[in-house]
């Protein structure tokens, strides 16, 4: 059974930084896409960043230059470094994975439970 577990969320002031982590277990596919999504209250879920097994990355325009996606441990751990956070970044952040190459935040098969990020002074 594939399981994804996020951590690292919290309350941060505008301009601050957070690093989210996602530990993936039970996933054995060499070809994969892993990504971060977020959903704010009253809004649709949106893709934030994704990275595939070849290292190709894709970012939402709203986070380019501020957020960095990376992975470690042969893809078993996914990170999202978030710098210069803004109040509009406030949302529940989810990690996701699928055994395919990334397709512009297209549907993912496996999802975590989410970690809350709140940016407020």
């Amino acid at each position: 059974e594939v399981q994804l577990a996020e951590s690292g969320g919290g309350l941060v002031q505008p301009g601050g930084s957070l690093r989210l982590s996602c530990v993936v277990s039970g996933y054995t596919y060499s070809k994969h896409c892993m990504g971060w999504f977020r959903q704010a209250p009253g809004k649709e879920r949106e893709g934030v960043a994704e990275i595939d097994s070849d290292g190709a990355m894709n970012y939402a325009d709203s986070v380019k230059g501020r957020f960095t996606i990376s992975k470690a441990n042969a893809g078993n751990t996914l990170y999202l470094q978030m710098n210069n956070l803004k109040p509009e970044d406030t949302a529940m952040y989810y990690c996701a994975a699928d055994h395919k190459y990334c397709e512009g935040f297209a549907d993912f098969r496996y999802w975590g439970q989410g970690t809350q990020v709140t940016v407020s002074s």
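The mean pLDDT is 94. The chain is about 0% helix and 50% strand.
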